[in-house]
Amino acid sequence: MIKIISYNVHKGFSARNSDYVLLQIHKALESISPDIAFLQEVQGKHKSKRLKKIPHEDIPQIDILSKNLWPYTIYGKNATQGIAHHGNALLSKFEFSEWENIDVSFSKRASRSLLHGTIYFPADKIRLHVICIHLGLFKVERAAQLAKLSQRINDKVPRNEPLIIAGDFNDWRGHAENFLEKDLGMQETFKFLYGDHAKSFPATRPTFKVDRIYFRGINLRFGRVFWEPPWNTLSDHIPLYAEFDWL
Predict the structure, then answer these.
(1) CATH code for the structural domain at 2-245
(2) Please, are residues 59 and 103 in contact by the beta-carbon 8 Å criterion?
(3) Any idea where the domains of the chain sit in the sequence?
(4) Which of 47, 98, 151, 164 has a CA 20 to 30 Å removed from the CA of 185?
């Protein structure tokens, strides 16, 4: 069984942007201990004149979040502010055999990327593809990014190899389905289980269905949304969780 979580950690700040809560996020993640975490808005470098002094600002957030949980981590920078930057991260209990961060920026002012990792399970002779994404805010921007995602999958992910795509799609109107469900034959966890995408933003009163977990070539066992405390105060997004088995 593979347990995964998808979570926009909001650069370590609370739902109302008032407190720095990265250590509390780590503690909450530790209580679940998923095998693979798909994280968005992870700070790679903090130092910026716009940010007041925060704890551990010289340490990349991926190092703090992964401590005692995930020995294997990859980070893909996709947004910069001065000398500070943040992006997507994949944290895993299993070693990555290869990975790549693919630039899908629509403009220099709104840089984005797809973080694609591959994990090989020798006992099962299975290669699992995991892609962490954070798409743009505008429909035309997301359409271009989804087209690049589709091309990446068609070029690099064989149909017989399992694939999980998770992250912040910023797609409250469901346009991603044309690419992921119809074109690529993928299914979305919460739509498959409950008939609709999960409400995950804003965390204090989830209204918008912007976060997703899509899968293909793997068996979905379970999925849930962590609406309850402390999750509803730790970030401006609610995390999504799912469990899978090999087919």
Answers:
(1) 3.60.10.10
(2) no
(3) 2-245
(4) 98
